[in-house]
């Protein structure tokens, strides 16, 4: 497995190569998403959403922005904006096709289960009831990204975030301006309750107009400006400062306290001043509430300094499964949505500890297997592409030499 990871890394260079921290933590986030999507899964009590005012989705979006800043920022500097924009649009097309495929498979999976069990509860809970009533119109709205059943709302948000990055690519070189514009847009979206329209009413569950501030924060952190004559620099980090560490710890401690009050001490809310009680009970996920934003940023700051970029354990056997999952996030995520519903069905039949263990171990093993296969396939593609290119270069070499001699 470690051979796959080595094969996916650039050869050398201090600033070159993937940041395995982002890959590993994105893999963990994908695993948490699988766990959190299975109602009745007791392992869900140990995921991020139980200890902070954020969950794996915030982590996934932040790391997606970080990876985009590294990859497309490098393309922007090596080639041009048009080439980087074309690469982004191609990725958007891949995500769109994956989303539509996942929509069809997930709808068929849930619909078949509801028919087999003679229950419409799944359709109602996952917001697929309208598909049964108006299938053709629902399919059209899904193609337009205006119909998003539960669990199928992350990829549409990601698609819009990448589209927003296309015109914002040059601003990676001016991170202060990028974050100022992104912050202003975030505040305006929350103040005026702006959102993209949803066919079934209301707006998108994950409002990309608000979540863009987290994505662009990651992109600004991931972009490494080139150094004249020295290649690309190391990805910059927010400097270590005891005050920022203390603020991050306090933020996460307050997050845990709010969760504790909301889950186990609801009667305490009645004793609080009404404005404060309303604030603590309206921490929404749709518009990325500021408390959720601060929580994920505080966690990222602490982990970013606690885990060095070249920590040896990131290349070890324990981290390898999560690194592979993070490096191949799209197929892993799509499989996780399908597997989560299967796990839910299994836990509804038997939720004792043996079934709990079997479902979670099988789910993780399946995600890791997908990462391994995707890693092998990528290495195979690189190998096949390398040899034809070398052969073509050999064929062209004599001609180039003779023409040079002739001149």
Can you walk me through this structure?
- The chain is mainly α.
- The protein has one domain (17-386).
- It contains 17 helices and 2 strands.
- It has helices spanning 2-7, 20-36, 56-78, 81-116, 121-125, 129-133, 135-143, 154-168, 175-192, 208-222, 242-264, 266-269, 274-280, 290-306, 320-327, 329-349, 353-406, and strands at residues 226-227, 231-232.
- Strand 1 (226-227) and strand 2 (231-232) form a beta hairpin.
- The radius of gyration is 23 Å and the shape is globular.
- InterPro entries: UCP028704_OpgC.
- This is OpgC domain-containing protein.
- The chain crosses the membrane at residues 95-115, 150-169, 176-192, 204-224, 244-262, 289-307, 328-347, 353-377.
- Keywords: Membrane, Transmembrane, Transmembrane helix.
């Amino acid at each position: 497995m470690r051979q796959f990871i080595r094969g996916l890394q650039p050869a050398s260079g201090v600033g070159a190569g993937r940041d395995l921290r982002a890959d590993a933590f994105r893999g963990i986030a994908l695993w948490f998403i699988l766990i959190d999507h299975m109602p009745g899964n007791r392992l869900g009590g140990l995921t991020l959403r139980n200890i902070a005012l954020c969950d794996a989705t915030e982590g996934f979006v932040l790391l997606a922005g970080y990876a985009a800043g590294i990859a497309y920022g490098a393309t922007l500097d090596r080639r041009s904006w048009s080439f980087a924009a074309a690469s982004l649009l191609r990725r958007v097309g891949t995500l769109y096709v994956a989303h539509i495929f996942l929509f069809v498979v997930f709808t068929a999976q849930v619909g078949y289960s509801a028919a087999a069990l003679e229950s419409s509860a799944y359709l109602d809970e996952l917001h697929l009831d309208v598909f049964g009533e108006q299938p053709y119109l629902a399919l059209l709205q899904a193609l337009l990204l205006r119909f998003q059943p539960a669990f199928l709302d992350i990829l549409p948000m990601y698609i819009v975030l990448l589209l927003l990055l296309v015109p914002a690519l040059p601003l990676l070189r001016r991170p202060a301006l990028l974050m100022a514009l992104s912050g202003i847009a975030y505040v305006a979206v929350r103040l005026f309750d702006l959102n993209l329209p949803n066919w079934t009413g209301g707006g998108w569950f994950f409002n990309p107009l608000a979540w863009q501030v987290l994505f662009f924060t990651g992109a600004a952190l991931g972009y490494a400006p080139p150094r004249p004559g020295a290649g690309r620099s190391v990805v910059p980090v927010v400097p270590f400062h005891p005050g920022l560490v203390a603020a991050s710890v306090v933020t996460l401690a307050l997050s845990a306290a709010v969760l504790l009050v909301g889950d186990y001490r609801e009667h305490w809310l009645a004793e609080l001043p009404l404005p404060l009680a309303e604030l603590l009970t309206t921490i929404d996920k749709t518009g990325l509430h500021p408390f959720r934003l601060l929580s994920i940023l505080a966690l990222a700051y602490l982990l970013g300094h606690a885990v060095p970029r070249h920590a040896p354990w990131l290349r070890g056997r324990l981290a390898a499964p999560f690194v592979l999952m993070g490096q191949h996030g799209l197929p892993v995520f799509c499989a996780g949505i399908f597997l989560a519903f299967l796990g839910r069905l299994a836990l509804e039949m038997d939720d004792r500890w043996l079934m709990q263990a079997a479902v979670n171990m099988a789910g993780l093993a399946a995600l890791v297997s997908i990462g391994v296969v995707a890693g092998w396939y990528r290495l195979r593609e690189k190998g096949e592409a390398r040899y034809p290119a070398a052969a073509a270069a050999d064929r062209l070499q004599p001609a180039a030499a003779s023409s040079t001699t002739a001149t």
